[in-house]
Design a protein that fits this description.
Blueprint (H helix, E strand, L loop, with lengths): L1 H9 L2 H24 L3 H16 L8 H15 L6 H11 L3 E3 L6 H13 L5 E5 L2 H17 L4 E4 L7 H9 L2 E5 H12 L14 E5 L1 H7 L4 E7 L5 H11 L7 E4 L4 E4 L1 H11 L10 H15 L7 E4 L2 E5 L6 E2 L8 H9 L7 E8 H5 L4 E6 L6 H8 L3 E3 L9 E2 L3 E3 L2 H17 L4 E4 L3 H13 L5 E3 L7 H7 L6 E4 L15 H9 L5 H24 L2 E5 L6 H8 L9 E8 L3 H5 L2 H10 L11 H4 L13
Parallel strand pairs: 1-13, 1-14, 2-4, 2-5, 3-4, 5-13, 15-21, 16-21, 17-19, 17-20, 18-19, 20-21
Antiparallel strand pairs: 6-12, 7-8, 9-10, 10-11
Length: 626
């Protein structure tokens, strides 16, 4: 109540921030006219001047209006993109070391160039940390044109690059480096294991902007990065226990607690294991290690499902990140769980490892001299971000009003009923040539829906951890008329789905080299075609987001919704869920089943109610009947 009264008198924190920063944006606008008539060389000379002033001790903060104005003019010339005023404000928030909450489509990638450019003038390096290799490569190549035009160097570090230490050192030595969160963390650990300072690849942690900051600093904050060595444990025990546990029956030998994700042996199961393993008392102190491995084998068989928690590739079990839907190469579950899953899947079992170096993202990112972040969904975690990292969250106004329609959830009794409704919705959109992005929570579910669509003769693309190599191709086409794209969380964060198609990506896919004369011709051709198609897509209702399950983290759902309705475009979103979904089974499905039975609801008839599914989660418009 006190906070409410204060807000009415002096405004909310966000309103006060906007009141303070808007005059600075106006100052940048006033400087614009003095730069437009400069030659390219004259504009670049301003950058050299900024660096001389830094060397003499002037603070970058005092140069902010001038530097932002130069960066904006560089963006207009090198990229054909002029920063909006709200992007100027977002850039200021980032440079101050706060989190800029910007809705999808508001241009976070371009916004980040402003503070990165200004911080890089100090000569200590600036990092843009992103959640996956696709975004790191894309943004480094894209925004690198702007930095290069202004005379700054750009490096990129991402997984599977096979970089030598010399190449990594060169990437980190650049003025601005785009890097994935895992790679920068592992490079830090590897540096700490080196005996000679000359062998280090990083040059210090000066300034970083963390993209999708809530994912990295909240969802994965306590995830340890571990460099391991071989402890030399044999695989026989895992293989034997896999066979033994495979003989046990659920609810006879063990019980599974879906809500708490745990599994417990019953007396019959204990007796079966004692018999198979030839031990008289499983819980004798001498068998404590055996009990541990039995529990891990049970977890592997009951709680860790293939194509949901992991995939099998090239004789390896590869973890799937539940927040991003991406493969986590090099990551392994600890305490024998990974080996138990390898035994279950019949792949080569790697021996248990011993930890040689480890750090969590939470501890790593707190070592930066200045840390900032950006995302579309941070306010729900504002308190934790402030308490743990000292980061304020500032909501940046949209350049244009969001008009996306978020429909209320539809809740079905069974998964088959839900799938039937999903196909009907896709067919309805497809009939009027409205593009659809179908969001799933696992690789397995994305493939199930793909098979149903194939059976119904609906052309579509699938984007999941198994097709990550085709990500650019799929994203380039996902906003075209009549396109149907099924995706895991991979399309929920960072991806910019352009209505009518992504002309630049499509040109790159056709030509392959964005520096060639052929690329410019292809790009212009695709721009004309995409612009015309965009109008047709807008008339059809814009991008339709169809969520097929709710995620435990509401922010993940919000990220999926946010793929539609960018920059004031029309769009729609709806979640279709069933009482057989894992999350629903964990939280109240029995109660809702009883309600539907009492209402005498027919097969295929859903409940649409705020009491069941909640109101739209990110404050957008809603057409729910509730």
């Amino acid at each position: 109540m006190i906070e409410s009264v204060i807000a009415k008198v002096i405004g909310t924190k966000h309103e006060r921030s906007m009141k303070r920063l808007r005059p600075v944006a106006q100052r940048i606008n006033e400087l614009e006219s003095s730069l437009t008539n400069l030659t390219d060389d004259e504009l670049r000379s301003r950058v050299a001047e900024f660096r001389r002033r830094c060397d003499k001790g002037e603070s970058t903060k005092s140069m902010l209006p001038e530097a932002f104005a130069v960066c904006r003019e560089g963006g207009r010339r090198a990229l054909g993109m002029r920063h909006y005023d709200v992007q100027l404000v977002g850039g200021m928030v980032l440079f101050e070391g706060s989190i800029a909450e910007m809705k999808t489509g508001e241009g976070k990638t371009l916004t980040a160039t402003l503070p990165l450019f200004l911080a890089a003038l100090e000569g200590k390096g600036a990092h843009l940390v992103t959640v996956n290799d696709y975004l790191a490569r894309r943004d480094a190549a894209w925004m690198g044109k702007l930095y290069g035009f202004l005379g700054l160097s750009t490096g990129v570090v991402y997984p599977d690059q096979s970089l030598t230490d010399t190449a990594r050192r060169a990437a980190y030595a650049c003025d601005i480096t785009y890097v994935t969160n895992n790679e920068i963390g592992f490079d830090y650990l590897r540096d700490n294991m080196k005996r000679d300072v000359a062998g280090l690849v990083q040059r210090g942690l000066h300034f970083a902007i963390v993209d999708e900051v809530d994912s990295i600093l909240i969802d994965e904050a306590r995830t340890p990065l571990i460099i391991s060595g071989d402890a030399g444990e044999a695989a026989e025990l895992y293989l034997r226990l896999n066979t033994v546990v495979g003989l046990l029956k659920r609810d006879r030998d063990y019980i599974v607690d879906e809500e708490h994700r745990s599994v417990s042996l019953l007396d019959a199961g204990v007796e079966a294991i004692e018999e198979q393993m030839s031990v008289s008392n499983l819980y004798d102190a001498a068998n404590i290690e055996l009990v541990h491995h039995v529990n891990k084998a049970l977890e592997a068989h009951t709680l860790y499902k293939r194509d949901e928690k992991y995939v099998v590739q090239d004789d390896k079990v590869v973890i799937v990140d539940e927040f991003t839907g991406r493969l986590m190469h090099g990551r392994r579950w600890s305490d024998g769980l990974h080996q138990s899953i390898e035994a279950k899947e019949g792949v080569s079992i790697k021996s248990e490892s011993v930890t040689m170096a480890t750090i969590t993202f939470q501890n790593f990112f707190r070592m930066y001299s200045k840390l900032a972040g950006m995302t579309g969904t941070a306010q729900t975690e504002e308190e934790e971000l402030k308490k743990t990292y000292g980061l304020d969250v500032i909501a940046i106004p949209t350049n244009r009003k969001t008009i996306r329609t978020d429909h209320g959830d539809l809740v079905y009794r069974t998964e088959p009923e839900k799938f039937n409704a999903i196909i009907e919705q896709i067919e309805a959109c497809h009939k009027k040539q409205q593009p659809v992005l179908v969001g799933t929570v696992s690789v397995d579910k994305s493939e199930v829906i793909s098979k149903i669509l194939t059976k119904n003769g609906i052309a579509h693309e699938v984007l999941n951890a198994k097709q990550h190599s085709r990500e650019a191709t799929i994203i380039a086409q996902a906003g075209r008329k009549g396109a149907v794209t099924i995706s895991t969380n991979m399309a929920g964060r960072g991806t910019d789905i352009l209505l009518g198609g992504n002309a630049e990506l499509m040109a790159k896919l056709e030509v392959g080299d964005d520096a060639s004369p052929e690329f410019e011709a292809a790009h212009e051709r695709f721009k004309v075609a995409c612009k015309a198609e965009r109008e047709e897509v807008l008339k059809s209702g814009g991008l339709f987001i169809l969520g097929t399950e709710r995620h435990e983290s509401r922010r993940i759902d919000n990220q999926l919704r946010g793929r539609a309705g960018r920059q004031g475009d029309v769009g729609e979103s709806r979640f279709m869920i069933s009482l057989e979904d894992e999350l629903m089974k964990r939280f109240g499905a029995d109660r809702i089943q009883g309600l539907m039975a009492r209402l005498g609801m027919e097969e295929g008839m859903p409940i649409e109610s705020g009491m069941v599914s909640g109101s739209p989660s990110d404050g957008q418009s809603s057409s729910s009947s509730n």
